[in-house]
Each structure stands twice: as structure tokens, then as C-alpha cells.
């Protein structure tokens, strides 16, 4: 993962009533193994967080960042100048919304054939290490897990004029709604899809499809695991779920069957869906076996199709599978 350009600007703020001040870096940071590891660690932490996905707005709502970013990518503006201008905008946000400043990391990286721009306002945390004499010493390091602000842009999709509605993402879960809204305005971001809602709808469509096909329990479990593994892997890499790929995974013999089912039932899903890890984690299965009874069901069904009575320690199944119902009727 080569780092094409990177820089860290310092934004100082001593407290809620103090003004925020920017100390811009004079030069970019040369690529190194340490910088690559730092950006990779930031990406890993970022991919695991709840985000808003979208794209750049057009016209007057686009703001100043997209045209300046375009100028940098066209070699009409050097990276240091572009990053300093962006840091000045971020400093104003810190001044208005945050009690403390931090270190603004901006990195232009390449993964395979795709370029990304990442930015994050990071803070230091205290830790411990060993010095040359093997003595324990206090040390500071970036806290990658809790940035105050962070965003990531798929530059390749943006420049290729991709039909994707989610080549830009940013955090909304820190600092309050007003900060998130002002951050989106600064970026010129226009919300595309609701990742959590789209992921839940996709998983509902998958459950409906499996139920319609009336698959054996073992086959249903295998397909569920395959879907969740694929979606979780995409989430870990910061990539969207593609309905075409997912459909092939669900049924290799009929690779378009699940995709056609989604379209025919009009679930209103986008061709590409940014996965939400929280929704995915709720879709894992509950399983148990005892005394000749084996039970397995998707965890998201608990509270709807399946209820657990803790007082009497019993499960209530509201909708019996067709195959099981037929066997029971024969008895």
C-alpha cells in the first residue's frame, strides 16, 4: 500500500473557551514502512466504525473542498498547499465544536488500482515501552481507535465519474450532530445511502429468499455463513457489498437467481451497499443441541419469529418451517 503523499498538521486548543490555532507542517512526510503501517492501522479502525456514505454534491452545495481536491489531482495545486487549506477549514470546526485540538493526518494512498484520500483528527494516548537499556518508559502514540473527525474518499471512483452513490464516507458518531453536519458541509458531502438500513434490508431479503426456496437446514446455514463472511470481509476492507457478487455466492448454479429475486420483490436496494458491521453481527445464528433436540435460527429472528420466555426457559416458534410442518402433520 504505497503512500503517495501524507502530512500531519497540528491543531492546538487548550480548552472549550480557548481559540483553536493551526500550526501547519511545512513539508510532506516521506513514505516509509512506519507511515504505511500508521495509515493501514487507521483504515482498519475506521472500517469498523459506523459511517455515513455518500458522494460530493453538485453546484453551490459542493463547497470548496472538491474543486481544490480536483486541482491537486490534476497537478495544478501541490499537496502541502491543498492539505494546509483543508487544515484551516478543519481548525474552524474544532474552534466551533470541540474542546481540544489534535493532529490532522491527511494521506493519499494507493491500494491496487484504486487511490484513496484519508483524513483524521487524531489524539495522543499514553502507553509504555522499553528503552535501549530495557527499562520501562512512558511513551505517547496516536490513538487510532477514537478520531474526533475522519473521512475517506475513493478518488478513483470519483474521477471516473462512477455511478456509485457512496465513494465518500465520514464518521458521524463523535462530537454531536451539529459537528457531523458541519463536517459534511465542509466536505461538500451529499448523503447517498443509509448503510445500516440498506444492510438490514439486504439481510431481510436474503432470509425471505431462503424461506421461499425452502432449503434444508444445513444448506441454509452454509449459505448464511457464506453471505455473512463475504459481507464482513467487505466491511473490513472498506468496500461495498455488490449484489452481483453476492448473488453468485448465494447460488453458484443460478448466479442471477438472488439478484433477480431482489429486483422482482422491489426491496429498493442499491446495486452496491456499504456494509454495516452492527447489522451484520445481529445476523449470526443461535444454535443448540440437547436431549435429541437440535435448534438453529438466525439471531435477528429473536423477538419476531422466535421468542424466548426466560421465566419458563422455553422457546416459542411463531412460524414453523414448511418442511418441518409437513413432517409433523404426517405424524
TrEMBL record:
Its main location: cytoplasm. Signal peptide: none annotated. One of its GO terms (molecular function) is double-stranded DNA binding. GO terms for cellular component: bacterial nucleoid. Keywords: Cytoplasm. Pfam families: NA37 (PF04245). InterPro entries: Nucleoid_associated_NdpA (IPR007358). It is found in: Cytoplasm, Nucleoid. PANTHER family: NUCLEOID-ASSOCIATED PROTEIN YEJK (PTHR38772:SF1), PTHR38772. Belongs to the YejK family. This is Nucleoid-associated protein.
Amino acid at each position: 500500500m504505497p503512500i503517495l503523499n501524507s502530512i500531519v498538521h497540528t491543531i492546538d486548543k487548550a480548552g472549550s473557551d480557548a481559540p483553536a490555532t493551526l500550526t501547519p507542517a511545512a513539508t510532506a512526510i516521506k513514505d516509509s514502512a512506519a507511515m504505511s503501517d500508521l495509515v493501514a492501522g487507521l483504515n482498519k479502525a475506521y472500517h469498523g466504525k459506523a459511517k455515513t456514505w455518500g458522494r460530493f454534491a453538485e453546484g453551490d452545495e459542493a463547497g470548496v473542498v472538491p474543486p481544490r481536491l480536483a486541482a491537486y489531482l490534476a497537478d495544478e495545486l501541490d499537496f502541502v498547499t491543498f492539505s494546509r487549506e483543508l487544515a484551516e477549514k478543519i481548525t474552524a470546526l474544532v474552534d466551533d465544536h470541540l474542546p481540544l485540538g489534535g493532529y490532522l493526518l491527511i494521506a493519499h494512498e494507493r491500494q491496487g488500482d484504486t487511490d484513496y484520500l484519508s483524513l483524521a483528527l487524531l489524539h495522543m494516548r499514553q502507553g509504555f515501552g522499553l528503552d535501549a537499556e530495557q527499562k520501562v518508559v512512558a511513551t505517547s502514540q496516536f490513538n487510532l481507535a477514537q478520531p474526533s473527525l475522519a473521512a475517506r474518499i475513493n478518488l478513483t471512483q470519483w474521477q471516473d465519474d462512477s455511478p456509485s452513490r457512496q465513494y465518500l464516507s465520514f464518521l458521524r458518531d463523535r462530537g454531536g450532530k451539529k459537528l457531523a453536519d458541519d463536517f459534511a458541509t465542509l466536505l461538500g458531502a451529499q448523503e447517498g445511502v443509509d448503510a445500516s438500513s440498506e444492510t438490514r434490508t439486504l439481510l431481510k431479503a436474503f432470509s425471505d429468499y431462503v424461506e421461499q426456496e425452502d432449503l434444508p437446514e444445513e444448506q441454509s446455514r452454509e449459505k448464511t455463513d457464506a453471505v455473512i463472511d463475504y459481507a464482513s470481509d467487505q466491511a473490513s476492507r472498506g468496500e461495498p457489498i455488490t449484489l452481483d457478487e453476492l448473488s453468485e455466492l448465494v447460488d453458484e448454479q443460478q448466479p442471477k437467481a438472488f439478484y433477480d429475486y431482489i429486483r422482482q420483490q422491489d426491496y429498493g436496494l442499491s446495486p452496491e451497499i456499504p456494509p454495516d458491521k452492527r447489522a451484520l453481527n445481529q445476523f449470526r445464528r443461535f444454535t443448540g443441541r440437547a436431549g435429541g433436540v437440535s435448534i438453529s435460527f438466525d439471531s435477528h429472528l429473536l423477538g419476531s419469529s422466535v421468542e424466548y420466555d426466560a421465566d419458563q426457559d422455553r422457546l416459542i416458534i411463531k412460524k414453523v418451517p414448511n418442511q418441518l410442518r409437513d413432517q409433523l402433520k404426517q405424524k
